[in-house]
């Protein structure tokens, strides 16, 4: 019996693991359980953070930058259409400086055909000190021709116009700078007018006028005369003497040579192509600004010289604005109330022989200057009969 018990005891001891092995297995199982618990806790925390983040985004309306840009461009801004590009500014006032304005105005479609019905307009650009004494005459001139013209006025910076809403000059004054007679600031003002007018893509022809200018014919005749011409009207004469070539300075070379130097009237009419040439010029402008100073009057030389160098065949080499220089001096004659008669007005359009589309024409001038404010009364009386308003 004792031998058997001993043998059974030996068998029992052999079947049961030692105490140390049992502790090791239990430790491994416990580590596995704890690792699983940590993983589960991490998953729960991650899920919780995700849920909280979603609610926070909804509460504070936080959006991804890319998504925000897409949504704004698609829904919060007016869609870009051809109409929005073609629509002319309702108000000619703007906040651009000269550099920004000239840069913006120099943008032009390269295609010559228009994907819409374009009615070309005549831009009337008034370079003034302030008031327009002949505004009632111009109001009569423009009446009934809406959609065929635009108006732009450059006055001294401190001038404030008082035209009411019914006037064609209401809100047509552009941002301006001070102007000195005969200096580069005069051409700066003219470029400012051209650039402002170029912002309206329907403007095809550009006429520069002063506050002392009057029209010599009705709007219909002037529009037909300008639109039917193969040329733009700017003088570009190669004039000898101290008032012509004598104003040239050698410092303008090599961009401008003496043989290229030209002189013409300040008052011009040009088409859109030439207007763009003027506002985008950065080659000749610095030369004239540095070297053409009184007694070199830059407004008589800058545009005529530049345009004749590049576009001579497109210029009629004459102005459309009559001016009387017969009395001599630095300024032309001024016409007052006593000068304005039927005979006087009838003779002005054909006061000089000229060509129109390479044919002799009885009409050379469409505008005239220089008129004193006292001439307004007889002009209003004679305009319907003589000027064809």
UniProtKB/TrEMBL annotation:
Molecular function terms from GO: glycosyltransferase activity
Keywords: Glycoprotein, Glycosyltransferase, Membrane, Transferase, Transmembrane, Transmembrane helix
InterPro entries in alphabetical order: BC10-like, Glyco_trans_14
Any one Gene Ontology cellular component term annotated for this protein: membrane
Ranges of compositional bias, category Basic and acidic residues: 1-11
A Pfam family of this chain: Branch
Transmembrane segments annotated in the record for this chain: 35-57
Topology relative to the membrane: Single-pass type II membrane protein
Main location: membrane
Region (Disordered): 1-22
Protein name: (rape) hypothetical protein
Localisation: Membrane
Residue stretches in coiled coil: none
Domain of life of the native organism: Eukaryota
Organism: Brassica napus
